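We treat protein structure as text, and this decision shapes the records that our systems exchange. We quote a single record here, exactly as it is kept in our systems:
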Amino acid sequence: MCLTYIPLLIRKKKERERVRERDGENMFDYLTIWDDYMRYILQVDVKRSMDKGEKRFNQLSIEERGKFDEETLVNVSNIRRLSTTFQKASVFNNEYIVITILVAAEGVHKLPLIKGSGDLAVALQKLASIPTSKILAVEILWTPQNENDTLSERELLEDYPLLRPL
């Protein structure tokens, strides 16, 4: 099993708010057209057994969710749940969003060494081209989830210290 973990830091724009309405399958289409990625992490982990792969996928998912103050929107199999409580925006400028992609798939899927946004687009397109019959799990998480939430620079540095500039 091949596990891919990609947190991405991008600048938020109004038209991108619609990404919250998309399911995981369509999310890749949106991610591959954004051209203002600022930072990223790319980890590919191959596990020999399904059990070890599933444990690692769940571990990564829990670690990512632990970075959120609150999950305000959940979309599983196109069934959406929206939280009724939101944190109010603080004095921080809310112009950034971190999107984390977790993919578990059968086989080994090589992704390019990322040296720029073009390489990142190729990596995302390769992930999107994995046949559905080979995909075991996909999770796409983003923070902040609500337009009134903020992601301060301090939180960003604490939660994502390994983000590399593009």
